[in-house]
Each structure stands twice: as structure tokens, then as C-alpha cells.
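[09:14] KT: can someone run the structure on this one? pasting the chain below
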Amino acid sequence: MATDRDAVLEAAVGVLSRRPTAHLDEIARAAGISRATLHRLFPGRDALIREVGLLGLQRFRAALDTAAIEDGDPHAALRRLVDAVVPDAALCAFLAGENQLYDDEAIDELWESQIVRMHALFLRGQQQGVFRVELSAAWLSEAFFDLVAGIGWAIQDGRLAPRDAAFSLAELFLGGALRTPPQPDPQ
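[09:31] RB: done, C-alpha cells below
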């Protein structure tokens, strides 16, 4: 019986996103395989971490593509992105917590290309008066990604129901990012 590599990566995400220093034995156990099988699939911890990182970035890129963030109203584009990215929030949690990935040139390039797209979405939204201008597009991008990671952790820990995740993310983020008209002075 062949071992499903993607299923092993998903199991690794479940362990590593909450415990970045978890031993390979724990990851193998979570995947329902032996440590020897894990080593046949990934020659060591660094290779496994890199593959999980690449999977996370590939899924995030797919969410950006699915949401077509370069098209249409920035507010609507962000809501589409929320819906597209929430199913992979645990991968974003892994990416947010794994600093070993930032020593890999290919991963850095993939991450940078995606961050550029996020910055462009927020900048376009600022220019169109949709998002707050006193918060930089770079900060809005970082804050959004970190909230997605937080959603991933909250779901894993049972503090947030998966069905509530997209709504919770969109409402919390947009509550702080959307530009609101100035309110009249009550005096």
C-alpha cells in the first residue's frame, strides 16, 4: 500500500503548526506511519519542513488566484480571499511560526511574489478610498496573514468552529481596515 505524501504533509501541518519543535516520531504517529516510512518520504526534518512550507505557499498562491484579488472592488476581492484562504488557515499558522523557512531562497522568492500581490490589493484599496490610508499596505498585508494564522490555531485548538472562521476573520479584519467616513463632532 502506497503512502499518500499529501496526507503525511497534512498530518505534519497539524503537529508542526502548534508545536514547531515536535519530533519526527510525533509527526509519523500523527500521519499513521512509521518513522522509517516518514524518512523514506522525506530524508530528514529539514526536508519535511521545506515541503510543508512549499505546500503552504502553493496553497496561499492558489487562494490568491481563486480570489482574483487583482480584479474588481478591493473590498469584494478581500472577502473572496477570506473564503479562499480559510480552508488552509493551519498552513498559514505553520508558515507564521516556522522561521527555518526564511533561509531558503526558493521559498523566499515564492513568499515575496505573494506578498507583493497582497500589498497591491491593499494599496489599490487605499487609493480607491476603501481601506484606511494611515495604515500602510505592508502592515495590512502582515496583519491579514497573521489573522489567518490565528484562525488556523483557533480552529485546531477547538476555540473556533470551522464554519464560523471566514465570518470571524472578515469581520475582525475589515472592522479595523475599512475606511469609515469621519463622524460629526457631538458638540
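[09:33] KT: thanks! The chain has a mean pLDDT of 90.
[09:34] RB: yep, looked fine to me
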